[in-house]
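Hey, I'm writing a tutorial for new members on how sequence and structure tokens pair up, and I'd like a real worked example in the thread rather than a made-up one. If someone can provide the structure for the chain below, I'll link this post from the tutorial.
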Amino acid sequence: MKFKTELDLKAFFDTNYKKAVVSANRLLNNQPVAEDVVQDCLIKLWDKREELIESTITGYFFRMVRNRCIDILRNKQPETVTPEDANLAFTDHSNLELNELKQKINSIIDGLPNRCREIFVLSRFEKMSYKEIARTLSISPKTVENQISRALKVLSASFSFKLILLFLLKP
């Protein structure tokens, strides 16, 4: 679909808006921010309509949404801590350790090659099947399988124990 008129954009919006908001909300866990992200990405898509290749517009749009969500999560400012929260923080070391582990895993995922990272995030965090990923990115399911395997090898090599990767093994 090529955007030649605003009607083309409206048709694209009607087809993809809800799914994009759901995907963004899965990452951000904040419905209003997810809606803002999708709307911003639609505006950017409209602005870049002349540069886009017709067959890749949908995939490009969903990548824009995902990347914008990741940027928001990276730049999220720490929330203000009250004295009550500070007391809880000192007594709850397991949450601190879990957050550190999540940061390390996210850092490793961020270090994956772009395509590998994109496929891995769609599989593990967007809960898309290999076939859905293959269709969305216009690649073969075998390529998806190989990239997931590659990502898991990198992750498992980064940890001295593999128990923490159990949540990553099955989509």
